């Protein structure tokens, strides 16, 4: 389930929407085509592209280590990770 | 596997590969990965120790123990094995950092035995108040680099948490961070993959992806060598301009920058190979979505990546990125398995060339805000060839890190690659920005271009503005009394030569010979020949030598294309030149007129015209001017200090341009020319006589003739000042052999006829250790370029086309302006200069010497003679019925190159019904037809081309093998043995019958050709006995087993039968030859085991493939006295070795008892100052092990024979008398069973006698290495029998274990396992002995 809340202010905080969009762009698909629990590897995401993604998110202040991300590559898991690192409740808003 | 669980599990696929690699090379420490973290600041040591220990307790892999199980190796976790952090205080040391370094180096350089040693070790060195270094070493079986990093981060995390509980890397967690994951889960995942469908799909993907891939090659075109020891490491940061350019390029191409970087680097690698396609390796982490994401473990895999050049920059990057992506999807499939699937196992054939490793992250390990840390990678595992690594995020930093196998690359080469690669990457980025393609990027850096175009060619040297004529006329005037020419029975002084040649020159001038006239010469080698050549030049003309052995038609074509003024020939050949003005020696004027010669040639006039083979069938005449050849001869005279005291031998036919310096150099130097009689150059013994009689100082050989010369005993110990070789590649072995036989200097020269004989030279001296003898440095006023297909210079080590420039270039081809313009082009680097496109492929060495690598076209050299295959193909096509023809130079038997012609016949012309000649079998009809065709083709060719161009064998084809590009696949053309091969069919009745016997004994359907080798056809010692018996039955002649071993062909054995008297070689003599190989390598001597016979080593010797002899016991001969001790026996064997191999290093091998004797022989050889290489002991144990064994009685000795014959005596307790044992052996049809009674007695004697001697023997220590191969499946009752027992008797023991029983160790299967192990070591030892010499 996505929450593309368009009215949310643009901050350096990661949102689920941005997560989806970044991932989708990296694998060349549209965000609608990726379900929350899809294994992103099946969508063609490989470690090189992931490194790219993660480096950018790290640069933007999302301090999740790469090794955590690669353990379970689904949108849902990643969102949980990000939330945890931003000090929020992992429950999706 | 639960934490703390002891359950034994098999290794993962990734681990298995490493396991076997380590077991095969137990001394290799390269499998230890290690890093050092240098820490500055107020480290809380206790907290760090706690952190390191706790982190270690989370990682099962670090505590692994392993054991070899029945079905393979097993592993389990032993908590006691966990690597606790050792604290080492060096703060009171004089130089703590240095001591720490040395300690770390020693620790990681110790090879680990996974069945015995801990896989991991960690130490904290205290260097001072605020300086530390944390050392971590883990065997690759336990982890890869990612795992090392995980562990390091976990230690850091625990340290942080320990210091600041409640805050962990910015997270608000209250625990100790997140523990690392379960190793058991990683193994589960691996097992699931191994048994799943996914693996099949992955296997299929790789099979398809790599179908037709080229063979792998590194950056230096050297054969692969296994990795061992520390590699060369070079790190350099890439500058900001490059980083920004790379990021921008990636953005434009819409690819990730790591993939772009990988692709560009892969192209750099491909350019070194010089092929349109090559294969590199890329690592696959294997952690994404895997149970191993947070587990230190060995998961990493290396995948092959095919790189193909492309017209478009963007397409190339895109295709490479796609290949990377697809490969990653199937990345779990092990690279080692891919290699097996492709059949690349065995030898050193690799799956991929260089490894390209882009690691796009850069996160320094952070311990705390107050500590500075620097990570130093000490070792990342074995580097087979070279790893081109990049580490960093590109936006802030990107470091190039090259690791290279020091056996292949020198440190200087590594540094050169770093510079070259960085330059290449920048150039690629710039080129793309300009809209160019990758092919537009030059491979050499600008500095390299400068060096290898200009610096190495700074050969300007003053040469007199003269002609041959002015130079030799000066000599004639200066030294009239000196001997100019001599030949058996005749001598001419310079004064006489001057007169004779002036007389003839005047005669020629009267016939219209002047400048630019061409006079053909068809005279046998004699003083007249020399006079003719000199006279023609003095008359102003150029000479054209003709080979009277050529067919008329070819001769006619040559004569027609040259506008001849005259032909100088003798009475014998006069009739062949009926259409031309001729002048025979009997008509030559002897006395000159008083008047001096009117005109002499000018430097730019032609001096000679020599014809060479033409690719389209038309031979071409090379015109060389005086100034060109003067440069060559003056250089030679001064470079080698040729003077009046020299005597130069003229032996090379005048049609070969080497003869030019033989003829004229003496005349320029005032030396004496010794003219050999006409056929002497073919007879080495005649040459030796000439050399001795005339005290020749200087002569020339083509390498294959030199080899024959050195093989002639008469040549041994000859003293010569200089020997020049050219015309063929000079091998290092031949160079070395030369220096053991001849006392003199050896020089290797290179050059085509089109460049005045030779353009480069190399001193192939006694001290020269080059494995590939270079063609060397350019001569005076000469330029040599190695260029790519766009005429750009190539860096050293990269093969390219060789272009020649300078004053020695020929004017061109006579009457062939188009051809001349094609081959003689403008020099892009020297305005107004010319270059000759040699068609040779070469490469530069760093020292500025050139290495010759071969041809880029269809020209070949056979015994130094230049042959354009096209000329022969044209001639074949002119034969009736031939609709397609190809010719190849093949070397199916080592050392025997020959021309093979492939023809396709017009189907309409094949005689119908010829298949069913009445009364003959189909095979015989086919053979007969083949013989007739061969005869026809040979006769036809003999009228078209010289004899040396007629193929030795022909093959008829109906279809032609093609490559993927649709071109003829020459490598797939079949060897001629099965077709119209040379010597195929039996020629005599004896041969016919012998061939049938071979077929019967071997169970083959068709009788083999007369040159087929019995053992190559599948025979072994056992079937050899059958053959001997069969021969005995048919001809009542016992030729002996030894005869079959030493000359195992139909022809040879039939010849033996037909020879009226010959001694029987029963194979029981003091030595036997185990292989017919004459490779020139140091020979292997195999010492007999208990039974005294060495036949059992045959399989192993043939598998090893170098010259090998078996030494057999004197006890086999009842007439011989027995030696009193092993040492005495060893001395006797050493004498035999000395007779068989008087000089040079030898290698030794012994199974069982043979090993004990081999060690004693090695000791004795060393005492005598001989070099000993490999000493291999096959499951042999020192004498003291046997001292307490009971002495065998004769029956026990015979039962030992059972073991020798490959039977287990324990299984036959009923065989307790001699008769029973012998009957059993005879029934079982073993080799031993068929021995005649006296021989069997000899064997028994050998067993008992040797046994006695062994028990009394005391080993002297051997100052060298013993290689021990243990029969690991045996010795249940004597587990004390181990390699280590030899440590008392040798400086070093290298121990290998093989899954074999003792009795099998010389069998066929064992030979297949053991031979590669020996070959690798033999080659390595040969090289290192060579380097030490």
UniProtKB/TrEMBL annotation, chain B:
Residues 985-1061 form the Carrier domain. It comes from the Bacteria. Keywords: Phosphopantetheine, Phosphoprotein. Gene3D superfamilies: 3.30.300.30, 3.40.50.980, alpha/beta hydrolase, Chloramphenicol acetyltransferase-like domain, Luciferase, Domain 3, Nonribosomal peptide synthetase, condensation domain. PROSITE patterns: AMP_BINDING, CARRIER. The keyword NAD does not apply. It holds the Pfam family AMP-binding_C. This is Non-ribosomal peptide synthetase. It comes from Salinicola acroporae. The lineage of its organism: Bacteria, Pseudomonadati, Pseudomonadota, Gammaproteobacteria, Oceanospirillales.
């Amino acid at each position: 389930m996505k929450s593309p809340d368009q009215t949310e202010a643009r901050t350096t905080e990661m949102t689920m929407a941005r997560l989806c969009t970044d991932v989708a762009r990296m694998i060349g698909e549209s965000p609608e085509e990726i379900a929350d629990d899809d294994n992103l590897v099946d969508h063609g995401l490989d470690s090189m592209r992931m490194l790219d993604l993660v480096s950018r998110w790290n640069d933007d202040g999302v301090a999740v280590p790469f090794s955590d991300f690669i353990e379970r590559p689904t949108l849902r898991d990643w969102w949980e990770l990000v939330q945890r690192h931003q000090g929020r409740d992992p429950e999706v808003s | 596997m639960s934490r703390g669980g002891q359950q034994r599990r098999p290794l993962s696929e990734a681990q298995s590969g490493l396991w076997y690699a380590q077991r095969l090379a137990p001394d290799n420490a390269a499998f230890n990965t290690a890093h050092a973290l240098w820490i500055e600041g107020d480290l809380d040591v206790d907290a760090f120790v706690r952190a390191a220990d706790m982190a270690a307790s989370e990682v099962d892999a670090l505590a692994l123990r392993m054991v070899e199980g029945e079905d393979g190796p097993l592993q389990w976790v032993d908590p006691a094995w966990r690597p606790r952090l050792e604290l080492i205080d060096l703060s009171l040391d004089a130089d703590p950092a240095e001591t720490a370094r040395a300690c770390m180096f020693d620790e990681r350089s110790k090879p680990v035995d996974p069945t015995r040693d801990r896989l991991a070790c960690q130490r904290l060195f205290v260097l001072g108040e605020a300086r530390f270094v944390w050392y971590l070493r883990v065997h690759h079986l336990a982890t890869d680099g990612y795992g090392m990093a995980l562990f390091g981060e976990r230690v850091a995390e625990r340290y942080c948490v320990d210091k600041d509980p409640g805050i962990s890397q910015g997270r608000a967690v209250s625990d100790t961070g997140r523990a690392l994951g379960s190793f058991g889960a990683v193994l589960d995942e691996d097992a699931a993959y191994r048994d799943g469908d996914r693996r099949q799909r992955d296997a299929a993907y790789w099979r398809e992806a790599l179908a037709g891939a080229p063979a792998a090659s590194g950056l230096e075109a050297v054969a692969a060598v296994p990795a061992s020891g520390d590699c060369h490491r070079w790190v350099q940061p890439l500058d900001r301009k490059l980083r920004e350019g790379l990021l921008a390029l990636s953005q434009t191409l819409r690819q990730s920058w790591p993939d772009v970087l990988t692709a560009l680097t892969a192209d750099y690698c491909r350019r070194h190979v010089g092929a349109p396609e090559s294969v590199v390796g890329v690592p696959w982490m294997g952690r994404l979505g895997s149970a191993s994401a947070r587990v230190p473990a060995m998961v990493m895999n290396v995948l092959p990546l095919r790189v193909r050049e492309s017209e478009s920059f963007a397409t190339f990057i895109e295709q490479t990125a796609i290949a990377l992506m697809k490969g990653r999807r199937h990345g779990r499939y092990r690279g080692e398995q891919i290699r097996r699937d492709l059949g690349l196992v065995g030898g050193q054939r690799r799956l991929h060339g260089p490894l390209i490793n882009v690691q796009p992250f850069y996160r320094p390990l952070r311990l705390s805000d107050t500590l500075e840390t620097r990570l130093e990678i000490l070792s990342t595992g074995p580097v087979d060839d070279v790893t081109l690594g990049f580490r960093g995020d590109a936006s802030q930093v990107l470091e190039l890190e090259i690791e290279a196998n020091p056996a292949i690359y020198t440190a200087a080469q590594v540094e050169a690659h770093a510079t070259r690669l960085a330059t290449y990457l920048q150039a690629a980025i710039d080129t793309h920005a300009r809209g160019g393609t990758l092919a537009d990027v030059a491979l050499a850096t600008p500095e390299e271009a400068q060096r290898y175009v200009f610096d190495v060619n700074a050969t300007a040297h003053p040469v007199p503005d003269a002609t041959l004529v002015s130079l030799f006329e000066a000599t004639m005037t200066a030294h009239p009394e000196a001997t100019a020419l001599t030949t058996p029975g005749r001598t001419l002084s310079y004064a006489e030569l001057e007169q004779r040649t002036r007389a003839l020159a005047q005669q020629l001038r009267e016939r219209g010979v002047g400048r630019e006239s061409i006079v053909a010469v068809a005279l046998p080698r004699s003083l007249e020949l020399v006079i003719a050549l000199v006279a023609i030049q003095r008359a102003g003309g150029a000479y054209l030598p003709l080979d009277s052995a050529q067919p008329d038609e070819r001769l006619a074509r040559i004569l027609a294309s040259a506008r001849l003024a005259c032909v100088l020939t003798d009475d014998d050949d006069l009739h062949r030149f009926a259409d031309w003005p001729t002048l025979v020696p009997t008509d030559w004027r002897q006395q000159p007129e008083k008047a001096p010669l009117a005109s002499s040639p000018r430097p730019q006039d032609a001096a000679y015209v020599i014809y060479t083979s033409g690719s389209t069938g038309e031979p071409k005449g090379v015109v060389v001017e005086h100034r060109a050849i003067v440069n060559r001869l003056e250089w030679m005279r001064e470079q080698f200090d040729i003077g009046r005291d020299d005597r130069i031998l003229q032996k090379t036919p005048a049609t070969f341009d080497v003869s030019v310096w033989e003829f004229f150099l003496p005349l320029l130097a005032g030396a004496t020319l010794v003219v050999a009689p006409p056929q002497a150059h073919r007879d080495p013994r005649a040459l030796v006589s000439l050399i001795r009689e005339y005290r020749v100082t200087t002569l020339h050989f083509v390498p294959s003739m030199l080899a024959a010369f050195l093989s002639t005993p008469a040549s041994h110990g000859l003293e010569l000042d200089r020997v020049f070789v050219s015309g063929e590649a000079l091998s290092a072995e031949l160079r070395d052999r030369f220096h053991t036989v001849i006392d003199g200097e050896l020089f290797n020269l290179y050059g085509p006829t089109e460049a005045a004989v030779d353009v480069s030279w190399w001193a192939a001296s006694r001290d020269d250790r080059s494995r590939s003898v270079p063609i060397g440095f350019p001569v005076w006023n000469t330029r040599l370029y190695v260029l790519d297909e766009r005429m750009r210079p190539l860096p050293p080590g990269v093969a390219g086309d060789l272009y020649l420039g300078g004053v020695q270039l020929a004017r061109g081809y006579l009457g062939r302006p188009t051809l001349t313009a094609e081959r003689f082009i403008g020099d892009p680097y020297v305005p107004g200069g010319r270059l000759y496109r040699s068609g040779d492929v070469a490469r530069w060495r760093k020292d500025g010497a050139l290495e010759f690598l071969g041809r880029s076209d269809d020209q070949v050299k056979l015994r130094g003679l230049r042959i354009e295959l096209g000329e022969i193909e044209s001639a074949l096509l002119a034969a009736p019925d031939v609709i397609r023809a190809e010719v190849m130079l093949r070397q199916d038997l080592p050392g025997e190159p020959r021309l093979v012609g492939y023809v396709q016949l017009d189907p309409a012309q094949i005689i119908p019904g010829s298949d069913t000649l009445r009364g003959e079998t189909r095979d015989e009809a086919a053979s007969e037809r083949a013989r007739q065709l061969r005869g026809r083709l040979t006769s036809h060719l003999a009228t078209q081309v010289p004899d040396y161009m007629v193929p030795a064998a022909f093959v008829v084809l109906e279809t032609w093998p093609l490559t993927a590009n649709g071109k003829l696949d020459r490598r797939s053309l079949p060897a001629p043995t099965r077709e119209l091969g040379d010597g195929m069919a039996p020629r005599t009745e004896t041969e016919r019958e012998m061939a049938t016997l071979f077929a019967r004994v071997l169970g083959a359907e068709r009788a083999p050709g007369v040159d087929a080798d019995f053992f190559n056809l599948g025979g072994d010692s056992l079937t050899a006995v059958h053959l001997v018996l069969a021969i005995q039955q048919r001809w009542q002649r016992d030729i002996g087993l030894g005869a079959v071993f030493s000359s195992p062909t139909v022809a040879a054995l039939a010849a033996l039968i037909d020879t009226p008297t010959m001694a029987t070689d029963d194979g029981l003599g003091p030595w036997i030859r185990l292989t017919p190989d004459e490779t020139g390598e140091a020979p292997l001597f195999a010492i007999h085991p208990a039974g005294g016979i060495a036949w059992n080593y045959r399989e192993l010797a043939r598998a090893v493939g170098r010259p090998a002899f078996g030494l057999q016991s004197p006890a086999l001969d009842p007439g011989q006295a027995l030696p009193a001790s092993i040492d005495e026996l060893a001395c006797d064997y050493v004498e035999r070795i000395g007779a068989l191999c008087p000089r040079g290093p030898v290698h030794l091998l012994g199974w069982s008892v043979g090993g004990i004797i081999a060690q004693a022989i090695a000791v004795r050889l060393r005492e005598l100052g001989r070099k000993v290489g490999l000493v291999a002991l096959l499951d042999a144990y020192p004498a003291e092990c046997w001292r307490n064994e009971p002495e065998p009685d004769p029956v026990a000795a015979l039962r030992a024979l059972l073991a020798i014959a490959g039977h287990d005596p324990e299984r036959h307790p009923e065989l307790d008398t001699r008769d029973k044992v012998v009957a059993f052996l005879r029934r079982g049809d073993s080799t031993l069973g068929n021995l005649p009674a006296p021989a069997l007695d000899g064997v028994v004697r050998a067993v008992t006698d040797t046994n006695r001697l062994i028990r009394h023997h005391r080993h002297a220590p051997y100052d060298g290495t013993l290689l021990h191969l243990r029969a690991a499946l045996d010795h249940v009752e004597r587990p004390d029998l181990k390699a280590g027992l030899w440590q008392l008797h040798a400086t070093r023991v290298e121990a290998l274990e093989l899954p074999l029983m003792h009795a099998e160790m010389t069998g066929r299967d064992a030979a297949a396992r053991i031979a590669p192990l020996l070959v690798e070591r033999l080659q390595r030892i040969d090289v290192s002995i060579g380097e030490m010499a």
